[in-house]
Design goal:
Order of helices and strands: HHHHHHHHHHHHHHHHHHHHHHHEHEEHEH
CATH architecture of the largest domain: Up-down Bundle
CATH topology of the largest domain: Amino acid/polyamine transporter I
Helix content: 55-70%
Oligomer: single chain
Number of strands: 4
Radius of gyration: 27 Å
Shape: elongated
């Protein structure tokens, strides 16, 4: 008897969208995808990090102005992850993004670790965005004449953001669209005005001294890499995107291109217009965390600087809005897979949003803002994000390698054939290099996620989740036991064609199973399926009519083929060596 039953082969037979459903309405088009992706990036990476990056590139002592190169290198290293996720998102256009891809590829244990780590990463980054505007707060306090408690302000904004998220993605789009567009327009206009009116020192951004050593460039690229982490965040709400096979890949790649142009343009002009030394203050981090205000005031005066400060607060709040939108979808997807309590997959009937997942994420953010050093913890989580980018690239390689056995992997957009798998390998090794330059802190966040994820899976998820054959298991067996892989593929084809679940196939089911294995091809509209001729293996011996093959394999002559009989027939057609 076969050691495989239909339940053992669900991971081979079913597609992810057949195995589960989002129950979320698809409302987001291409423009919305780009806006949400940009809103997840244009925040602390542009309004807070540039001055800190100048100091980092100067070796931590003397700030230099060539940080634009670090942003360009970081964008280049983000391309493989963006390309891979673009492919994966069209094969699995469901909410949960990176968690779903990892879980479907490597199984529930690795999926639980990835889902928990991604949720914590996005949640902490969003919390950091909410309190990250504190560097600009003194400017607003001077305008209104009132001292503002940063934690109270952050909690107040958090409540508003949670409510907006529950109301749905259409509300988020209406809020974020004008913010992102005005923010980008204002910053680019400021850069253009600086070119026209200022005496720019281009040597500060192009001379050899402006870049430090190559080790400094690499370390700074790792430091600012998190600025692009939001580029693929939209995949987390893939179940709410219209025409995902088109809008997800183009939206991801367009937002990466535009954000890179914006980062490079602004940082070039910031250093060319203002001496990098003027961005330093000798404080806790050695550099100012309000560089856009300094740049804007130097170029346009105090009023222009004040507008930039207000814009920084609004934009980083928008970043937190996108952060909760994405991070809440991870527990929603994990609950759908029964890895965490199932109430988190509940969808609000009025607004079509996973309200309990959103509320839970909001509560966690509130606790983080109140009790944790969010800035430090968020930086520790950055290393885990780089590891996820590496894992996403590995997912494409594994799924492509095992797609013969896991036919559900059928992306509508693929990595261009000249680039596969080179771009994925570049992403894996490039990510490893970034982790090396980040040092030991890069593994701290990952270690915490691994420990907590393993505990949650072993204590809760393992008892409830259905164990499936994963593409990763298939890939390993292809290297160690290819005969077993082919047997499993044959059994999967049998059960997929056994629509009535009788454990037997009639002639048409038999033909469908052989077609799904690729052993035969249809004869066309005017040629009956049962008249197809199967060439003899290796061209030796007479060809076989498929009807004769069916009756020859029906050993008990009951008019049906059972699973063991089917295996014998399959071995005659395509010997399993």
């Amino acid at each position: 008897m076969s050691k495989y039953g239909p339940k053992d082969l669900v991971g081979v037979v079913l597609t992810p969208t057949e195995a589960d459903s989002d129950n979320l309405e698809r409302r987001l088009g291409l423009f919305s995808v780009v806006i949400i992706s940009l809103s997840a990036m244009i925040g602390s990476g542009l309004f807070v990090l540039p001055a800190l990056a100048m100091l980092e590139m100067g070796g931590g002592e003397n700030p230099v102005g060539g940080v634009w190169l670090a942003y360009l290198v970081a964008a280049f290293l983000a391309v493989p992850g963006a390309v891979s996720k673009s492919e994966l998102s069209t094969a699995m256009p469901t909410s949960g993004g990176s968690y779903v891809y990892v879980q479907r590829t490597f199984g529930p244990l690795i999926g639980t670790i990835a889902g928990l780590g991604l949720w914590a990463n996005f949640m902490l980054k969003s919390a950091f965005a909410l309190i990250g505007f504190k560097a600009y707060l003194w400017i607003i306090e001077e305008i209104i004449g009132i001292d503002i408690d940063i934690e109270i302000a952050a909690i107040f904004l958090l409540v508003i953001i949670v409510v907006v998220n529950i109301l749905g993605v259409k509300k988020i789009k209406k809020i974020q669209t004008p913010i992102v567009m005005f923010s980008a327009f204002y910053l680019l206009s400021l850069c253009a005005y600086a070119v026209v009116t200022q005496d720019l020192d281009w040597s500060r951004v192009s001379s050899k001294e402006s870049f430090g050593s190559w080790e400094d460039v690499a370390a700074t690229s790792a430091f600012v890499f998190v600025s692009y982490a939001g580029v693929t965040k939209i995949a987390a709400v893939g179940g709410e995107v219209r025409d995902p096979e088109r809008n997800l890949p183009y939206g991801i790649l367009l937002s990466l291109l535009f954000s890179c142009m914006l980062y490079v343009t602004v940082t070039v002009l910031m250093a060319a217009a203002v001496d990098p030394v003027d961005y330093m203050d000798g404080g806790e981090h050695g550099a100012r965390e309000d560089p856009v205000y300094i740049f804007a005031e130097a170029v346009g005066g105090e009023t222009v600087g004040v507008v930039a400060a207000v814009l920084a607060v609004v934009t980083m709040t928008s970043m937190a809005l996108a952060g909760i939108l994405a991070s809440s979808r991870f527990p929603f997807a994990m609950a759908r897979d029964r890895l965490i309590p199932e109430f988190l997959e509940s969808v609000n009937q009025d607004y079509g949003t996973p309200h309990w997942a959103i509320i839970g994420t909001g509560l966690a953010m509130g606790l983080a803002i109140t009790f944790l050093p969010v800035h430090d913890v968020a930086e520790l989580a950055s290393g885990f994000k780089i590891m996820i980018f590496m894992l996403i690239n590995a997912c494409v390689i594994v799924l492509r390698s095992s797609s013969g056995s896991h036919a559900w992997y059928d992306p509508q957009w693929k990595t261009p054939w000249l680039l596969y798998p080179l771009v994925q390998l570049f992403g894996i090794f490039g990510g490893a290099a970034l982790l090396y330059f980040m040092g030991s802190k890069s593994v701290v966040g990952a270690s915490v996620a691994i420990i907590l994820g393993t505990v949650i899976y072993m204590s809760y998820g393992k008892k409830r989740v259905e164990q499936l054959i994963t593409p990763w298991e298939t890939t390993k067996k292809m290297l160690t036991n290819p005969k077993e892989v082919e047997r499993r593929r044959v059994f999967a084809a049998f059960y997929a064609s056994d629509i009535e679940e009788t454990g037997k196939l009639n002639l048409q089911g038999f033909i469908d199973a052989l077609k799904s294995l690729g052993y035969i091809e249809g004869g066309g509209p005017n040629i009956p399926d049962d008249s197809i001729v199967i060439p003899a293996p290796g061209g030796v011996g007479p060809d076989v009519w498929i009807r004769d093959l069916f009756h020859g394999g029906d050993g008990d002559e009951d008019g049906f083929i059972d699973v063991e009989e089917f295996l014998k027939v399959a071995e005659e057609i395509e010997p399993i060596e």
